[in-house]
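Take a protein:
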Amino acid sequence: MITKDLLITFFKERATQPVSFREIVFKLNLTPPERRRLKRLLREMVNDGDIVRTRKGLYGPAEEMNLVTGYFEAHRDGYGFVIPEKVGERDIFIPARAAIGAMDNDRVIARIENRRRREGAIIRILQRAHTRLVGTFEVVRTGFYVRPKNKSVPFDLYIAPNEKGKAKDGDIVIAEIVIYPSDKRPPSGKIIKILEKPQSPVDEVEGIIDEFNLPRRFPHNVIEEAKSLYVKGLKNSEHKRKDIRNLLTITIDGERAKDFDDAISIKKIDSGYRLWVHIADVGFFVGWDSLIDREARKRGTSVYFPDRVIPMLPKELSEDLCSLKPEVDRLAFTVEMDFDMHGERTDVRFYPSIINSNERMTYTSVKKILVDEDMQERQRYDYLLQALEIMGDLCNILKSRRLKRGSLDFDLPEPEVLLDVQGNLEDIVKAERNFAHMIIEEFMIAANEAVASYLEALNVPSIYRIHEEPDPMKLEDITKIISSLKILKKTKAVVPKDFSSLIKQIHGTPEEDIINHMILRSLKQAKYSPVNVGHFGLASESYTHFTSPIRRYPDLVVHRILREVLTKKHLSDKRIKELESILPDIAFHSSRMERQADEVERAVLSAMRVWFMKDKVGEEFDGRVISVTPYGLKIRLKDYYVEGFLHVSYMTDDFYQYDEKSLSLYGIHKKKRFTIGKELKVRIDRVDMEEREIVLGI
């Protein structure tokens, strides 16, 4: 029977040039029913980007025709980059003239036109990421348009007079895209909703949920399926599980957390340490292709906001049945690991378990016990002291070992938005990351590595969390900045293997967080892939995501694969082919949804910043330059974790020019120079609520 695998083999081994449908039929000697199936398979493979159909109707493998499939990362000026799906390939620059109307996050096929410069042109859009836009409705002499709020969309959307509904000039609207932009015709759409202008930060969050078309609720049939799982509960599962309810077990999470993915247990053994990492057994409740599974796969990840969460799973699962709450029996998937005194893993065991968490600890409380040695907190949790101290010891050993192998230790400050009980904005501060966070981080890394290396050794198809080495072209700016800051005695061209030692050398300097952010931006984005190429940032040869199945879909998939391997011992060839066929799409879609969640969180942070600063126009603040462009300076304020932009036209004390060599702005007459890290006093000149921008002056 004709299959996709057979066709892939045919194109790789027997197609020395583009071939027609008839040639494929003749060479494979296909029967009439197989020909009909061939038509359908060719159409699917063209849509998936596996092969390409030329204008003459001939078929060929994409890589043989100098074509690359990937997703488009768009810039507001129209140009962008195609990030290849195939691991190990460098990004391809797409000039604005060659984007053929592709939008941010669209799945595309691009032709490489200059291999040395990695420049190309998009020739086909396989899958659109956006079906609608949020923006401002504008009435101009030439007609009606929607100006998108999303800066990466490089066009205004034309609205026909009969498609504008009741929208008026200046309204914030949601428009459905009816015709996408192309070389031949401009984009057009229709108004489907008029949004109220936000009157509070909470209203702003509601608008962002609309802007990204995020689901506010689960479909009724998904909720009903989730409720039915209460009957399943712990029934008929105990005898297939290891009962470790007597093991001292705790969770450590933030104060506001409700979905407890992971719990930990530990003890000293003669050879070193024994660590148990218990992960919520979501796979027991959510089977492949169930209603809940399909919805979770579509969502890909939970999305977090300052005042709420849009979960991947219904709350019946995420906050109850699967959540490892204290003092109740819960089903888990346990990774039991032995480590020697140097932190090397000497043994590992995986098994479904039933646990009962003794205590729901918080990061703040664990820090008080281990770092601050707070007597009141230590007395309150005296029965946990020994276990917590052993956890702290093992964390230090594991982290030291990870750093020695070249793992990047970013201690990047992250902003935290604080709201009061009424939803009013109180403050934007630097989020605390303490020793308790590091304990959980190290233990989860250890469990993820153990699962990944186990599945890889068995040669079982799985999803890996990969992180490729950075593009050498993106490292030039870092070298320039380090040279201009003169914080290192000798500065040579930075290469990826230098990152770990560079982070150590700048630790404690005023410029530490700025350079760390620059290094982070120069790195490729970690993603999910069925092909393992290692994780550069962690210096890990084999890594996956296993420890958060409540909020990340790839973790749930890895759970199922591990359970299948442990139960069946050996997967059939048919099952292996099934996994090989579905995992690439799951990995690609999960990576895309993760990127969208990141975009949502950035949009919320930008919105919260302008709401927080809107009453401070005219006030002056101390700040520090964190980025320099030909157009001006990006500055972070000292008093609040807020960033604004000082445009060069607002720097009225001189004529400023951009020095690309030192990445600085310098005054022609007064010789004043602004480089990354420079401190200065700025004034809040304007807060643009609609564009979510803070405009600074000096």
